[in-house]
């Protein structure tokens, strides 16, 4: 008998019998969008690159407006230093404080990464508890921190601070700055959480992820151009509705990818990276079926854009396509916010004309279809009625 001939049919491969092909599982192939920077060796230039000085100067000017002033940085630093001192003392020598036990205190967020924006004097600190994070424990920690920080401020004559609890922990507010204290617990305690007693599981897990994000950023994204691009992208996302769902972590990964991921492994100029970021999002980087950006702090197959729903992914791609066409026609000052659009409207949602070229917003490609109603019971009832008749 010839090897490979099945028992179910004459000369037919497989075990399914005559004519049935062998079972092959479908494999989902994630494809990256077209990236001219990575494909440049295959598409050599026929003429020199155009002069992009105007865009470069506009980007640097906008970034200087987005950077916090020295007084803002000093106010945040002073409050963070006081709060860090108080929390470290509670970790090492809690004394008579018995509301909870602290394991570690870590700075996270834009203040830690060096990407803080002007007018947003808010820093983030994650507190890891050894004990379970009950709501009473968070309130007790908030009161203790408020008491100790006020002692330090009164000694310096810098005014008083207030502490208010929320679903993520509590916020310590000073006259010119604020610090959000994000409460979490040890990883082995996550399975012991109860929704009615402790903080929300997803919130606590996101605080642990924030520590991983800050550690990765400190090790891999320390180049100054990455921080410049992050500020520009965050500002652009805050002014255009279609890009608002992009999370800070997605923007961090996008900026790092656009600056450092190139054949030369050298930091790209800020104007090239900015155009690349818009081109990638417009080309479908955050759409279903695209490889997207792998999350270096999660599993091997985790993608950063899966945090967005399908409608948000579609809206982000359509908005980026509109903004990219505006930038290509010389409207970068409106996109960057250096020059307000007519009536303060969102330029990504209005029909505009640039040197005779009409740029109109794209219609959404994703349409949410309602789930079909289950009519089996109604059909059965009608059949029974007919039989009974």
Automatic annotation (TrEMBL):
Pfam families assigned to the protein according to its UniProt record, in alphabetical order: DZF_C (PF20965), DZF_N (PF07528)
Keywords: Activator, DNA-binding, Nucleus, Transcription, Transcription regulation
Biased composition (Acidic residues): 371-383
Protein's name in the database: DZF domain-containing protein
Stored SMART domains: DZF
Keyword Nucleus appears in the UniProt entry: yes
Source domain of life: Eukaryota
Biased composition (Gly residues): 1-19
Keyword ATP-binding listed: no
GO molecular function, one term: double-stranded RNA binding
Positions of region (Disordered): 1-24, 366-389
Location of the protein in the cell: Nucleus
Major location category of this protein: nucleus
Annotated GO biological process: positive regulation of DNA-templated transcription
Record-annotated DZF domain positions: 24-382
Entry GO CC: catalytic step 2 spliceosome
InterPro entries: DZF_dom (IPR006561), DZF_dom_C (IPR049402), DZF_dom_N (IPR049401), ILF2 (IPR052134), NT_sf (IPR043519)
